[in-house]
Amino acid sequence: MAKQTVAEQFIDILVRAGVRRLYGVVGDSLNPVVDAIRRNSAIDWIQVRHEESAAFAAGAEAQLTGKLAACAGSCGPGNLHLINGLFDAHRSMAPVLALASHIPSSEIGTTYFQETHPDRLFAECSHYSELISSTKQMPRVLQTAIQHAVGQSGVAVVSLPGDIAAEPAPERAYQHALVTSRPSVRPGDEEIEKLARMVDEADRVTLFCGSGTAGAHAEVMEFAERVKAPVGHALRGKEWIQYDNPHDVGMSGLLGYGAAYEATHECDLLILLGTDFPYNAFLPDDVRIVQVDVRPEHLGRRCKLDLAVWGDVRETLRCLIPQVRAKSDRRFLDRMLKKHADALEGVVKAYTRKVDKHIPIHPEYVASVLDEEAADDAVFSVDTGMCNVWAARYLTPNGRRRVIGSFSHGSMANALPQAIGAQFLDRGRQVVSMSGDGGFAMLMGDFLTLVQYDLPVKVVLFNNSSLGMVELEMLVSGLPSYGTTNKNPDFAALARAAGVHGVRVEKPKDLRGALRDAFRHKGPALVDVVTDPHALSIPPKISAEMVSGFALSAGKIVLDGGVGRMLQMARSNLRNIPRV
Taking the model in full, what pTM does it have? Predict the structure, then answer.
């Protein structure tokens, strides 16, 4: 019987950790690992066209499952291409193991062909990054890397020279116990008692929720009703908290809408639940603030806290709810619900006016129709930029849909490769890539990955021939737009040339039928929708003191546009206000 190689041992450990796919591009230093996968039926090699896509795909898989996913790059330039997707996975708290294969071990330190130092290069975007320099070292290093990725919810990188991967594994190799899931974290009794006192003393409580509320919807709703608190959310909290929420007041931030901003500023106690919301200009500086987060390093890094609570949102609220007195005064909550509905009523008019006849097509209209036609359990991957706006305002969460994007790292070109990872998880589930033309073109090569594996991803391309969000940032800063225009081909024709269902939509009346045809099609499909590059308008009165990105230094910017079915939800919530 042939002796097991280090590469085979490496793959066996990944399989025991629950990894079922390794995304990457082959290369000489990776050959022993890829060959080990070829001979192991429990794991598949997923050949992408760019290593950045491999990292994005693995990150998407990890975000959707909460379990370990993996990607790989060959030595030097190959693994360097992983870095942007790994930054995104790390900042999204997605457990990803990255294999950075390396040049021959005897040549390290000699400026050999394609030599880099991956153990150093990936240090900033990982919890753990180490080089394997001997066969005896590998099992423990890989085990440690897996435990860092899973235990700390982020990236771990193992650098493995190709020659070591091909060597026989040590005779006395033994199996390690592997950590593959994270425990719940409960705050201490003292913190719960302090928080309960602060809630009881406050007249007006507001909850602001992020992705850390995943799995805690019932507890957040129970607590909000008990203390009569309006509930706002950050973009990454939308899918977890907005549905079935009679206390919803919308989203804060530049992409926000409704009364979330007012609710967070007019309360006397703001409770941040599972959010690392980075735009501190949208947070108040004159109210008491409590933050609850499972990551202690997140506590207090965005604003001054009156109380920091280290714990899972779900466990914290389970401990807290029995200790707080029920409030009966709904005046603050009802006033915020009314403001929320009024705010949505005002902006929705721009969306409804002759929108079904406007050419080029309003992107708001595209997002609204997409929301109506997509499956109730669809997974949406969303490109950074204006697609973030449309997803934030038009995709209706229901507890079954998922929405992922580069919401913390803010990378272009994330949607298509993330859709690849999402679709490999479940070929029977509808996966929709909401792509901008700039992002799609950047990693367009991996559209061919859909063809190669017959992945039924539906790409809905918002094609305004511009980098719309960058143009908006320039205008807000008082600069003329420059370098933001794209000269695009007929993307649908390119899709058809690749053997994929492709259709170009230039008139609003053709949109719904095109989406339905794409969703019915059993393989990959692309709907190239020509949208209005001037769809965004800025209110005439804004402060001149703006900062780059999505934050504000003085005042608030609001994007004028529709909000889809959220107005209907807000009106429904208004019916819950008691008549006096």
Answer: 0.92
